[in-house]
Amino acid sequence: DAGVIQSPRHEVTEMGQEVTLRCKPISGHDYLFWYRQTMMRGLELLIYFNNNVPIDDSGMPEDRFSAKMPNASFSTLKIQPSEPRDSAVYFCASSLKVDTQYFGPGTRLTVL
Amino acid sequence: GQQLNQSPQSMFIQEGEDVSMNCTSSSIFNTWLWYKQEPGEGPVLLIALYKAGELTSNGRLTAQFGITRKDSFLNISASIPSDVGIYFCAGVDIYNQGGKLIFGQGTELSVKP
C-alpha cells in the first residue's frame, strides 16, 4: 500500500513568491497533519484536519500560511508571500486514529 | 514549542551492542510513539504504545510506556549498521491536545561496523 505522498520533494524560491506544497494521505485515513521541521525548533504541528475539516490550526505561524483539504485524498499548504525564515522541511502525515501518525517523505523548502 | 526531554542526544556504539534511550515529560500522555528518521526522509513509525506499563517489541526493538505515563524508553538489541539514524519519541495527550504530537529532541545513533 502506498504511503503518504508529498510533492515537490524540493522547492527553491525567492522571497515574496507563493509556494504551494501538496500531500496525498494514505487511502482510508481520516486525519491529515502538516508539520514543519527546523534545527532550532524540531518538529512542530502546523495544522490538522479530520474528515477534511480543519480541527486545530493554532500552530500556523502567520496569516501568510494557509492550508486546505478539498477532498479526502488531497491537501495543500500554501505560503504567500514566502520569506527566508520559512525555509524548513515540511511534512505531511496521515492517520486512521488521531494519534498513530504516518509521515510522508517531506518537502525541503528553501526561500532565498 | 513544548518538547519532551529525550536522552541521550547522541550515541556512538559498536555493531552488536545494545542501545537504550528514553524520554521524560512533565505531562501525562495517552500514547507514546517512537520514530526513526534517516537523512532526507520523513520519520518512520517504529512502535506505538497505548497503555501505561505496556511493553511492545518490533524485531530487535522494544519499547515501554512508563507506569506514571510520563516516560517511555526504547531499546535496540544487537545493533547493526542500518540502525543508524535519529530516533524520536513523541507523546500524545488526546484529551487536551487532540492529535498534536509532542516530539523529543531526538537521539542520533551512530553504529561502527
Care to describe what's here?
The complex is a heterodimer of chains A (112) and B (113). Chain A is mostly beta strands and 112 residues long. Chain A is built from no helices and eleven strands. Chain A has strands spanning 5-7, 10-13, 19-24, 31-38, 42-50, 53-56, 65-71, 74-79, 88-95, 102-103, 107-111. In chain A, the strands form two sheets. In chain A, strands 2, 4, 5, 6, 9, 10 and 11 form a seven-stranded mixed beta sheet that branches. In chain A, a hairpin with a 3-residue loop joins strand 4 and strand 5 (42-50). Chain A starts with a strand and ends with a strand. In chain B, strands 2, 4, 5, 9, 10 and 11 form a six-stranded mixed beta sheet that branches. Chain B has a five-stranded antiparallel beta sheet with strand order 1-3-8-7-6, with no helix packed on it. Chain B is mostly beta strands and 113 residues long. Chain B is globular. Chains A and B meet through strand 4, strand 5, strand 9 and strand 10 of A and strand 4 and strand 5 of B.
